[in-house]
Design brief:
Ubiquitin-like (UB roll); 2 domains; two-stranded antiparallel ribbon; five-stranded mixed β-sheet; Translation Initiation Factor IF3; 143 residues
């Protein structure tokens, strides 16, 4: 419409049954739009909801005597979770005399860490409680 006086713009908005909204008050002259303000606010809230994503903690359970192929399958699953920006808890479950051989668990964790070091970092505190031991991997960057 170009540069229009305020009274003309208000009358035009009322005629159309819409609202006169000031878009840029600091411009010279100030920029206004004739829009349905309720619809505009609704679209803005929907757009804000789409951008919001909750980062989840996904758990992957492994055993100390896991086979190499099974371990690679678990690593592939962890890579998929990390690509979606989720954190991954790798939980090692011990049974019976396996608890005495924690070094086997640490070797499995090292394979996890070395394989996924390109997209993940290990959070500093690992949890160890009774029959389980775990590490948390988080994505390097947020996309």
């Amino acid at each position: 419409m170009g540069i229009v006086r305020k009274a003309e713009a208000l009358s035009k908005a009322m005629e159309l049954g819409l609202d006169l909204v000031e878009v840029s008050p600091n411009a010279n002259p100030p920029v206004c739009r004739i829009i349905n303000y309720g619809k505009y606010k609704y679209k803005q809230s929907k757009k804000a909801q789409k951008k919001h994503r909750v980062v989840q903690l996904k758990e992957i359970r492994v055993r100390p005597k896991i086979g190499e192929h099974d371990l690679m399958t678990k690593i592939k699953q962890a890579r998929k979770f990390l690509a979606r920006n989720d954190r991954v808890l790798v939980n090692m479950m011990f049974r019976g005399r396996e608890k005495a051989h924690r070094e086997v668990a640490e070797k499995v964790f090292e394979v996890f860490i070395k394989t996924l070091e390109d997209i993940a970092k290990v959070e500093p505190h690992s949890k160890s409680a009774g029959r389980s031991m775990g590490i948390i991997l988080s994505p390097n960057r947020v996309r």
